[in-house]
Model the fold of this input.
Amino acid sequence: MKQRARNLYRVAFVAIVVAGAAIVEYSPGANAQAVGAAADKKDGLRAVQATAVEVAEGKRIAQATCVRCHGLDGISTAKGVPHLAGQRPAYLYLELRAYQSGARGKKVMDGAVEFLGDDALVKVAAYYASLDPAPPVAASGAKAAPAKPDPVRAGKAAAAACAGCHGEGGISKTPGMPNLVALDPKYLVAAMKSYKSGQRKHDLMKSMLAAVSDADMNNVALYYALQTPARAQTPAAGNRSAGKTAAAACAGCHGNQGVSTNPAAPSLAGQDAQYLATALQAYKNGSRSDATMKSLAAALDDRVTKDMAAFYAAQPPQPPDVRKPLTTAEWVQKCDRCHGVNGNSTDPFLPALAGQRAEYMVKVLHDYRTRVHQSSTMAAMSDALTEADIENLAAYYARQKARAVVFMPVPGQ
Done:
């Protein structure tokens, strides 16, 4: 209680609210008033002060309207409900206004704030902002969510079982075994699934992939796509010049010189010649099911097939258009630019993320992706995140120590 009393009297927050509203900075002996004519203005908002009496009034309002979900101490115990304690008061106020107007679209919150006046919203924001922030996940004794593994590292680990046939880094040294580098991940995943389902007939590949999850396939395909392309280190029988002429009909799908720009069609440049010839034969006899390839391969005799395979095997492979995903640390650097170091925002309009409930942050990021929440900046950020990125970021910020921020008024110019 003594600590709480000290919190209510310390100079801690200045927020930005509608001109004429009662509060958002509180300090000993200060009345609810504008900081001054030179106070910061943004979109019709200005800085104002709150007294301990007004913060106490915010507590009373919170007891009547907010405590069931957010708790009187602002530390939520309900899944999907955010902590409010120590949050930036201007952000809280503006979010309450957004719920009141229906802009946030959450009916439970709309009902909770529907009949609160602007003065009450400001006081509630000031009250929750005055509280000590929630402790980080580890400090609270709750079990921290394990971080999702880096997909490239996970792919490399899973691909270790493939090296015996396909070579280190996916560069084949065994005739008949395909190169796995320079392939678009979408194609390679589709090929693995075809072997796993039996659509492509290959008993060894089917047994190897039987226990491999879709997530592992995605990681393996990403790992190989990011390796430096190189030709298969295998011999290629056949006439390359004749093969080039015969391969002209393939450029529409597989690209000039066998470098595909279509994720559904594999690049053939640098591929093992024996594997290519065997694959064409499989399409021809129907053991690989593809109507287009079957009709094209039907007219090819063994000599033409070998010539085409030799031509493609000699072409330099090119990396697919795939970017290495950012690590969690790299994403944190991007998020911290707006939300403060380790998620401790110093911008009155942007929420602190440190110590926030992880599953709530996951939900919010999904809401930005699906445009349930409207923000061009957050939409662009969230669209680039994978599910693993989202879960890792949420877990990271939940483990950070939340800190209160002091917003200090300065004299006018």
Notes: Residues 151-313 form a domain with the Cytochrome Bc1 Complex; Chain D, domain 2 fold (CATH 1.10.760.10). The chain is about 45% helix and 5% strand.
